[in-house]
Every structure is written in C-alpha cells, then in structure tokens.
Amino acid sequence: MAESKLSQDPHKLREGREKNLEIAIGREVRDLRRARGMTVADLAAAAGLSVGMLSKIENGLTSPSLTTLQGLSSALSVPVTSFLRRFEERREAVHVRAGEALEIERAGTRAGHQYNLLGHLGANSSGVVVEPYLITLSEESDVFPTFQHEGVELLYILEGEVGYRYGDQSFHLKPGDSLFFDADAPHGPDDLKKLPIRYLSVISYPQGN
C-alpha cells in the first residue's frame, strides 16, 4: 500500500491547473485576434513573435511569458488581465440529494403535474439559463398540451408511458425515449398511457427572459 502511495504524482493537480490556464489564455488570444480580423501572421508580426510560437499559444501548448503577454496585449489593444478572463470565470455545480428537490409551481401544476426543480444555473458567461426538472404525473394529473415558453426543452422519460403533443404532432414516449424541441410552440402531455409517469425536463432559455 505504501508503494502505491509513493507512486502517485504529487504535481498532477498543479500541472492540470497550469494546463487549464494555458488553454484559457490561448482561446482568449485566438478569439481576440479573430474579432479584429487579424491572421496568425498579422498578430505574430505585431507582437514580435514567430508564427509557430503564436500557434502554440493559441492551442494551449505552451505557457507564454509575461513579456509575451505584454506584447500580445499591446498588439491587440487590451489589458494583460483580459487573457485570464476565462480562467477566472466562476464555475457552478448544483448538487441536489435524493428527496430534497424543491417542489415548485409552474403552469402545469394546476393540472396535477408535480414539478421538482433539480437545480438552476444562470447569470453565467454563456448568457443562457438552464433549469432541470423532475416531473411526475399520477392518477390525479390531467392532460395539458398547451405549454408555451421561451427557449428549448429536452424531455427524457424515466417511467411510464405518455402521449406528448408538440404542435400538430403527438409522440408516444416510453422509458429511455427523449424529445427535444423549440418550446415556443404549444406542447405537453395529451395522453397519460401508463401511470405513474416520471420524466426529466431540461429547459434552456436566453438570460434575461
């Protein structure tokens, strides 16, 4: 057991973080260059770098020195700190334990549909809000094929069978089936074929809507 512990690389975590930094810097350099309509050769010349070195930087294959970053910042007319923007962005994860999902009210609640919110990610750099739900339909539930809202939606059936209407089409969904669609059109369950019915619904829409 001691030998196994000694064989572990103590620098693995640090190296992984450094590699992520190189990739983040490279992507930012590439995006800034493209936004200015510059070729790799254009930016390399303006920053005093070889085309090969700039290519390695943009692909996250090398760690640029502070002098190199200063040259790039001058050529792109941005502060050096802008190259670190993606690396410093806050990343979020939401862990909801079994049985602890928040039950909320949505338009379908009045039809006896149980909605449990599994998490919520918004106000991020992508400009997209994502809301995953676990929806349960029981004997007390009614059909409700007239949902309409912004964004797109993905359904994944876990249990039971349901006829799900989208626009003028109706899909017979069974466990393991999925349905992905533009949520602006009328949609919702129109035939509760085999109860209870449980499915995941992941809704994504532009931030601010």
TrEMBL record:
GO terms for molecular function: DNA binding; DNA-binding transcription factor activity. PROSITE patterns: HTH_CROC1 (PS50943). PANTHER family: HTH-TYPE TRANSCRIPTIONAL REGULATOR, METHYLPHOSPHONATE SYNTHASE. Signal peptide: none annotated. Gene3D superfamilies: Jelly Rolls, lambda repressor-like DNA-binding domains. Residues 29-83 form the HTH cro/C1-type domain. The lineage of its organism: Bacteria, Pseudomonadati, Pseudomonadota, Alphaproteobacteria, Rhodobacterales. SUPFAM superfamilies: lambda repressor-like DNA-binding domains, RmlC-like cupins. It comes from Roseovarius pacificus. This is Transcriptional regulator, XRE family with cupin sensor. One of its GO terms (cellular component) is cytosol. InterPro entries: Cro/C1-type_HTH, Cupin_2, Lambda_DNA-bd_dom_sf, RmlC-like_jellyroll, RmlC_Cupin_sf, TransReg_Diox_bact_type. Keywords: DNA-binding.
